[in-house]
Input
Amino acid sequence: MVIINDILYEKDSWRFFILAFTLKGHFLYSQSWKEYGDSVKYFISQKKTDKAIAYYGKVKAHIPPDSAYTDTYIQLSKNIVLLYYSNRQYDEAVRLGNELRPVIEKTYSETNRDYAWVCNLLGAIYNINGKLDAALAVHLKAKEIREKLAGSKSPEYAQSCNNIGALYRDLGQYDLAEPVLLEAKEIREKLPAEKQNDPFAITCLYKPWKLYKDMGQYVRSESFYLQAKERRAFAGKDNRDYASSCNILADLYAEMAVIRKQNHYTSKQKIYGKSLTAADMSMGKVVITSPACTAIWRI
Output
């Protein structure tokens, strides 16, 4: 009996050893993906894109199935999606973004800030790639989620309005673009004073400018861009953004001058009953003077 007990004890010892080894292996396995994740964060901070992506591949290879549905993994994956986007690796960003959506939905739910964030970024990429209908669908989804979570007065909701308005403009649906762009602008105007000059706030002025320009409403277009230019001036006038504002305004004024001149010659045609040639209309010099920019254009 003792021998049997000894044998039984020995067998139990081996079982315990195997169980302990398995648990230890699982622990090390789990730890390794987290360590790889730390390396991903480090290489992103050092702007070493290739290494960050390589180590993210190791994370995916080593992560246990249950750990894929954790906030740690979701945030790490978001960083890689953004990295792909920043490096214009749009196909990879779309692939990983669409992989991440069901993970977020299973971990939390579809009504989640991270889910809306992924939809928003996917919308930006679809827009860049000319897939406007696909972009509109995910931007509308992001807007719906953000309204439920943060309300219709939040900066996140306004961002979605801005993006949707810009898409409607690109689709030529100006009647749908105008109200959502103006809604975003109204939200911006109610932001705290310290946030009035951040890039988001300025964008809420920039996009209506483009809409009204496309609609031929140049006076309204000028009004919005003068406000945007004024906001950019708070960061100083010796920078690229402010210079860009001046150049865009100069282009706007030149286009307005061309139209005024064409209208002027059209009126003359009606008065004198004669046809003016393109050469006639291309002669002359227009001097444009405004509080924003002064430029001389030949038209």
